[in-house]
Amino acid sequence: xxxxxxxxxxxxxxxxxxxxxxxxxxxxxxxxxxxxxxxxxxxxxxxxxxxxxxxxxxxxxxxxxxxxxxxxxxxxxxxxxxxxxxxxxxxxxxxxxxxxxxxxxxxxxxxxxxxxxxxxxxxxxxxxxxxxxxxxxxxxxxxxxxxxxxxxxxxxxxxxxxxxxxxxxxxxxxxxxxxxxxxxxxxxxxxxxxxxxxxxxxxxxxxxxxxxxxxxxxxxxxxxxxxx
Length: 228
Prior knowledge:
Distance between the termini: 107 Å
Mean pLDDT: 83
Low-confidence stretches: 1-49
Structural class: alpha+beta
Number of strands: 5
Number of helices: 9
Strand content: 5-15%
Strand order of the largest sheet: 1-3-2-4-5
Radius of gyration: 29 Å
């Protein structure tokens, strides 16, 4: 009987131990799990208005029947290729002829360390009426984007090259004067579904075709015929 009693005590002790461990495990899981499910993500539109209601620098006539909006990143190699190879032809064939207006919007990608700094440099040049000149400097001399080095002094050289007042440029850059404008541009792009650069919208509609001057010319030709 003593031996049987000892076995029963051992059995009950084992049950208690399992219960304690099991209860502890359940308590641990309840602590890891949220007390209530997370609320669903809001479907409300992302606010896009900058404090100055700025909507990008443009090239071309305000009366042009077709507008293409480009979301771009100054550190993006594909954007640089587009700006230096395709854009000069688009300017000559479509923009200069009054058939097309081009709007540039900033969309600096978080994976690019100095893309936002480049966007700020272009905005600060734009303050002095030379956005497109800085745009061209940043894309034409795109080696800076591959070095990983801080481009501050190089961008200042670009500012000098295009004839900016360097004191005003420095004050603009140091004060991050157009930070809210850049934020608003990114928010606008995100609200429209922009995920990469360059991305294009034709008269407000997302463009999924190839980003070549020939394809844009064919598109403008087609849309122009529809308007007639």
